[in-house]
Design brief:
With 145 residues, the chain is mainly beta. It is 7% helix and 41% strand. The longest helix has 10 residues.
Length: 145
């Protein structure tokens, strides 16, 4: 079996850290020979995926919103259980509306759901465009090779 991913995309939000790992979200647009994902009549929509850099939170890698990166790595999934309360709290922190929910008389911390997250674990990152207009050439940047 093969589990190898190569994608190129734009960092769409500021990175975050969890334990010793660095995470960031990349927007990827499909090649012209792939089925389109239409946003409207003139534009295609991107696909979005989280990238994890194991040990990347040690400060050696400087990722920021707007960078165009090529990511070489592999796909991994994680299973986790989340309460409705946790889900709503995350949605609220990311700009969602604050509202109250009741499900058949249960409180939001009593409603649990098993969830799955898919992410790309980066083994190598190449900076294609730093997102900084003053810089002329792309600079390669390697991680965890």
């Amino acid at each position: 079996m093969i589990n190898e991913v190569i994608l190129e995309g734009i960092v769409v939000r500021e990175p975050w850290k969890y334990t010793d790992d660095l995470f960031f979200r990349v927007g990827v647009y499909r090649d012209s020979d792939m089925p389109a994902k239409k946003l409207d009549a003139e534009r295609d929509s991107g696909d979005y995926v989280n990238v994890r850099v194991n040990g990347g939170a040690n400060g050696l890698i400087q990722i920021h919103r707007g960078m165009r990166l090529r990511v070489h790595g592999f796909m991994q999934s994680r299973d986790f259980r989340e309460s409705l309360e946790e889900f709503l709290d995350k949605a609220h922190r990311q700009g969602g509306t604050d509202f109250q929910v009741e499900v058949n008389g249960l409180k939001t911390n009593q409603v649990l759901i098993d969830r799955n997250a898919i992410e790309i674990v980066a083994r190598r990152l190449i900076v294609m465009d730093s997102g900084n207009t003053t810089e002329k050439k792309p600079r390669p940047s390697l991680a965890n090779e």
